User: Fold this.
Amino acid sequence: MRQNSISQGSAAEIIHYFNAEELSGEETFGEIVLEILASRKNINRKAICQALLSRLNQATSVEQTQHYQHLISLVLTD
Assistant:
């Protein structure tokens, strides 16, 4: 039988791998989608914005802050 879910360990390993390098917007969105799926929540604009805002609050550099602000603006514009 095929398992259609991602274990918390697998999601954490994927996130750790991508955090080792500077992420593009697509990679960051991919990470966020994986996190949302792992938590079994619906993927929607609100969930993505919440995840981005959480990351923005934890940003440790100006580059990260700018990166997350840019992604939030992409999500909120049509």
